[in-house]
Each structure stands twice: as C-alpha cells, then as structure tokens.
Amino acid sequence: MILKKYLLKISNRIIKLVHSIVINNAVENKEIEMKKYNAIDLFCGCGGLSNGFQRAGFNILLGIDNDANALETFELNHKGAKSICGDISKITYNDDIKQLIGNMT
Questions:
Q1: Which terminus of the chain has a smaller tally of CB atoms within 10 A, N or C?
Q2: CATH of the domain at 32
Q3: pLDDT of residue 10
Q4: Model-level pTM?
Q5: What is the Cα 65 distance to its own chain's centre?
Q6: Structurally, how many domains does the chain consist of?
Q7: Are 74 and 47 spatial neighbours (Cβ–Cβ below 8 Å)?
Q8: Which among 92, 84, 6, 88 is positioned nearest to 49, based on CA atoms?
C-alpha cells in the first residue's frame, strides 16, 4: 500500500512537470498543440508510472515486467497497450518488441 501511494505521488509530480513544460512552451511559442509521444514502460508492474504519462498525453505502447499477474492488471489499466513478461536482459527490440508494436516508437 505504501508503494502504491508513493507511485501515485510520483505519477502526479510527473504529470505536473510535463504539463508545466507544455504550457510554458505553448506560451513562448504561441501554440497549444502538443505532439503525442509514445512510451514504453520498463519494469511496469501494474502501470502506475504509465498512468501518469498517459494522463500527461503520452500514448502507452508497451509494458515489460517479469510478473505475469502485474501485467494482467497493466493491460486492464492501459487498453490497447501490449505487454511482455520476461527477463528484461533477454528482451530485444527486433525479436520481441518490434513484433508487438511495429515501428511505432
């Protein structure tokens, strides 16, 4: 429970930081349109950090973790995102990631 609160707190801080950067750039450049960036979450767990990025306007493509139960929750939390369960040191872009998301990165 403590970890969940901590991750939510970090997610909210990231949202505020990204929002601040976007608004400051929009004011300086007199434009409001933000490019939608893609994100891949390493060691994603259930997707708390991805939630913060998603709320900040990012498109969550993929979560990678070694806990299958956490990845089930990740996929429920991030509709349309894919997941890979395994040892991250053995996952490669060409063999694993590109197969799932294509050239979206």
A1: N
A2: 3.40.50.150
A3: 76
A4: 0.66
A5: 13
A6: 1
A7: yes
A8: 6
**What is the extent of the structural domain holding 41?**
2-101
pLDDT of residue 19: 65
List, for residues 33-77, the tens digit of each pLDDT value: 556 899 999 999 999 999 999 998 899 999 999 999 999 999 999
Q: Which two tokens stand for residue 15?
A: 């949202």
Task: Check whether 1 has a pLDDT greater than 70.
Answer: no
* Residues whose CB is less than 8 angstroms from the CB of residue 33 and which lie 6 or more positions away in sequence, other chains included: none
Nearest to 48 by CA among 86, 95, 1: 1
